[in-house]
Amino acid sequence: MTFRATNPTTGEFLYETAALSASERETLLARVAAAQPAWRRASLERRARFITALGAALRAHRESLAEALALEMGKPIVAARGEVDKCAGLCDIAPAMAATALADEIVLDDESASVRVRYDAMGNALAIMPWNFPYWQALRFTVPALLAGNGVLIKPAPSVPGPARLLDRCFDDARAAIANTDTPEAPCYIALFDIESLDDVIADARISGVTLTGSDRAGRHVAQVAGRHLKKVVLELGGSDPFVVLPSADVTRAATIAVLARTVNSGQSCVAAKRFIVCKPVYDEFLEKFCAGMRALVVGDPRDERTTVGPIATASVRDGLAAQVRTAISQGARAVLGGDLNGHAGFFFPPTVLVDIPAQSSAAFEELFGPVASVFRVRDADDALILANDSPYGLGASVWTRDAAEADRFAAALDVGMVFVNDMVVSDPRYPFGGIKQSGVGRELGLTGFREFTNVKTVRIRR
């Protein structure tokens, strides 16, 4: 297997990098296993030095990191810089969050006994990462895992070897920046494992757990392999997030944010809004304003700062998206905007809005990974809630209402891991991120995320 970089803007092959050989794989596993015990014994303050240095390295290489995203996955350059900035910001706030999340929890302290809960390092984790947010997805797991005392091997997606190499350089720069301190080597390494070797890596005794961000199909396989070996898993999988517009909503603002929510990262985000469920009294107004916003998007070269929608990251993802749209139309849906490939060089797909989608159409429940919106008209809030929950996924949901009681009702009743009222769904280091049903298991970020890859250890001392 090779890690093969292609420019999605032009379709031009760039270069390829070989996956690790069996001996190189063993060397890397041995390296993380050797480094982790000293890292675990180091104080949180010492581990935090590396994280702070990593944030500085990310900022120092900001432009080259962003340019690599634009070149190899087509992320618009402004958004690419934003991804790097978000990672650096995580490094800024994560140490203080770790101090809270990993502190001993006092359960009992009386004349008979004391009981506390410790959050100790679990060991070493394999992180199987996607191509759509090569830095953020990797670091939102790696930073908390490292601060907890774990070692991490990061397996990047095959289509983005350049960003992976640059992230590895940032790790090296951070190690060099604190080399003269008493901080041990941070056990985090980029691992160019081939797909065929991953089952063996998960099974290896030196790996205590695995996290994957990817498709539900890949998640099932990883969960099965990890389960056979009783390994911890955190899975962040697909989403078909509802964006519910209720009659009391500020329709103008909802439509404006809906465009951004659907096309963030050119629509290639698990938490991008995908199913727009609009109540009949405001449907026409919302659709008109939403289509106007989608029509105004600038599709083009991701290196152009005016571009808001770049190409789809790979030919296979673009072709799959085009097939889904064709199928939806053949099943009765209408494209009121876009819908056809426009003959552009590269892997572009135009912003598209589908309406009149039959209930049994694939577009009613599949995840469309690109700038394609499915808009549904429903009678009222009750029907909106039923349709919103009628999905095999349960990642996030956005609800638009000016009625506080209605907001509380939807927050409680939606079968998802995250509900955002009058806002789009986003990830933020300060609160947990993750879903239910086929959207995965476990959480990243927030205090919960810091504890996912820890040994929750009860200590009782009798007096």
List the helices and strands and how they pair.
Layout: E1 2-7, E2 12-18, H1 22-41, H2 44-60, H3 62-73, H4 77-101, E3 105-109, E4 113-121, E5 124-128, H5 136-147, E6 151-155, H6 161-177, E7 188-190, H7 198-203, E8 209-213, H8 216-228, E9 232-236, E10 242-245, H9 251-263, E11 275-279, H10 280-295, H11 315-330, E12 334-337, E13 352-355, E14 372-378, H12 381-389, E15 393-394, E16 396-400, H13 404-413, E17 418-421, E18 436-437, E19 440-441, H14 446-451, E20 454-462
Parallel strand pairs: 5-6, 5-8, 6-7, 8-9, 10-11, 10-16, 11-14, 13-14, 16-17
Antiparallel strand pairs: 1-2, 3-4, 4-20, 9-19, 12-13, 15-18
Helix pairs in contact: 2-4, 2-6, 3-4, 3-6, 4-5, 9-10
Quick gist of this model?
The protein is α/β, with parallel strands linked by helices and 463 residues long. Helix content is 41%, strand content 21%. It has 2 domains: 2-237 and 439-462, Aldehyde Dehydrogenase, Chain A, domain 1; 242-428, Aldehyde Dehydrogenase, Chain A, domain 2, CATH 3.40.309.10.
